[in-house]
Amino acid sequence: MFKIKRLIINAYIIFVSIICFSISASAISNSKLATGTRKLIEDITTWLTVLAIPVTVGIIIYCFIRKGAADEQDQKMWQKRIVTSLVCGIGAILAASLVNVLTGYFM
Predict the structure, then answer these.
(1) Same structural domain for residues 93 and 62?
(2) Is the same domain home to 22 and 56?
(3) Quick one: 44 and 76 in the same domain?
(4) Tens digits of per-residue pLDDT, 65-106?
(5) 83-91 long-range contacts, Cβ below 8 Å, gap at least 24?
């Protein structure tokens, strides 16, 4: 009996919480601050996606030039830097795309 009563009370609290938070969330989502923030995030992620590609290519070209001018021991170090810069460039593009997708769904 006690468990059923507690279950009903918890269900009621959850229901009331959902109603209260959904009303406030819809009021906030239509505000000028929310729409401006969403546009700002979309613009930043777009620019990050656009800028990450040429910056990554430039760094990789620089590392290849340095690798070509290096001796045998330093070539291994420059090869690691090439791989690191490639992974970071791909990571930046994926992170910007993920943030852009998430803001599109949740904002």
Answers:
(1) yes
(2) no
(3) yes
(4) 999 999 888 999 999 999 999 999 999 999 988 888 888 776
(5) 85/56, 85/59, 85/60, 86/56, 86/60, 88/56, 89/52, 89/53, 89/55, 89/56, 89/57, 89/59, 89/60, 90/56
Query: Hey, what are 39's tokens?
Result: 């546009």
Domain span holding position 16: 1-30
Find, among 22, 8, 96, the residue nearest to 53 by Cα: 96
- How many domains in the chain? 2
Tokens standing for residue 18 = 């959902």
pTM of the model: 0.63
Residue carrying the six token digits 């021991």: 73
Same domain, 56 and 94: yes
Residue keyed to tokens 């994926």: 94
pLDDT digits (tens, 9 = 90+) for 18-50: 766 655 555 566 677 777 888 888 888 889 888
